[in-house]
């Protein structure tokens, strides 16, 4: 409601209502009286802070974790029960250590023993020590399942080989032939000595004949007497020819005996090769069985169970059972960055890698730095960037991410820091240029 106040003539004082008088007489709060100044100071202070506040631009890229020596997977190669489990979770193992056995028709203990025996016998054969092969110790295996038939074939070859070698028929025959060969050599030597003596006798007879031949020319002796000496010389020549014939017969006999020994040796060698081939074939079958039914550590490291495992548990073919985490392994990340913002990316810049399978809110992120930037794009017009991970797969939360092949991630590349002032000026410049 409007109140019109009329001042009397000659009265210089303005007459106001009580409400207005109360408002006029009330002193304003200090923030109202100084508000503009405070707002100006705060504004100047915040504007000054923009000169000191810096933060980097972020270039986003898809990433993939790569390991130079990744954990090795151990999977079942056949379907069946886990017959024997020989390790515990987080246990340290060495390369080649047996982790367990799958169910088979063969007794795995006998297969292992057979493998050791085969290795021993192969060593004996390679060193030509067939006499050291113990037939009885090799014949104790009777629960080899699908390997039993091959093993019986090996046993037959072993028996034939031992008959061929050591005190068997072929060795006795070989020794007999060698003895005959020695006798023939002695006879040949004697015949050679006889020939030498006959040759000397012949030379003496020839000298005697020449002397009588001169006497016959001088007609000191009759021609008939000369013929008698010539007959004696011819007889000596015949004796020499008989000695040569005996030597030739000795050579023929020695050649025949040597040929028999060679044929016999070939039979022995053929049997040795058959036995050696049977050994290698048996060992190959054993190794094939072990490859299928034996679970083995591919390298040194720590066993990590993929799931809870227990003996007699039914396992499917190809089911993953263990990871063997190496004692030493290095990791890096491969980034595929588009062209947007690529010009600001440089080697040495910090990268935050957030693994998709491990939420960063719970596990954190992995710190890294750029070590390589490809100069040529791939078929998708993206550039390869390699990122070193100094702390491996340990996150900023102190948690360690377990590596698996093809782990995907998202990466944030921290480019050069820029002042907030420069950013605001840049935005203002863009507004003014529009």
- Count of strand segments: 14
Helix content: 40-55%
Low-confidence stretches: 1-7
Radius of gyration: 54 Å
Mind explaining what this structure looks like?
The protein has 434 residues and is α+β, with helices and mostly antiparallel strands. The chain has helices at residues 18-25, 30-52, 108-126, 135-138, 148-164, 169-217, 223-293, 360-363, 420-433, and strands at 54-67, 72-75, 80-85, 92-93, 98-102, 294-296, 301-305, 314-315, 320-325, 331-337, 350-355, 366-373, 383-388, 408-419. The chain has a six-stranded antiparallel beta barrel with strand order 1-10-13-12-11-14. It has a four-stranded antiparallel beta sheet with strand order 2-9-7-4, with no helix packed on it. Strands 6-5-3-8 form a four-stranded antiparallel beta sheet. α2 crosses α9 (420-433). The longest helix has 71 residues, at 223-293.
Give the key terms.
434 residues; alpha+beta; Elongation Factor Tu (Ef-tu), domain 3; OB fold (Dihydrolipoamide Acetyltransferase, E2P); 4 domains; four-stranded antiparallel β-sheet; 14 strands
Quick summary:
This protein is an alpha+beta fold and 434 residues long.
Blueprint of the fold:
Layout: H1 18-25, H2 30-52, E1 54-67, E2 72-75, E3 80-85, E4 92-93, E5 98-102, H3 108-126, H4 135-138, H5 148-164, H6 169-217, H7 223-293, E6 294-296, E7 301-305, E8 314-315, E9 320-325, E10 331-337, E11 350-355, H8 360-363, E12 366-373, E13 383-388, E14 408-419, H9 420-433
Antiparallel strand pairs: 1-10, 1-14, 2-9, 3-5, 3-8, 4-7, 5-6, 7-9, 10-13, 11-12, 11-14, 12-13
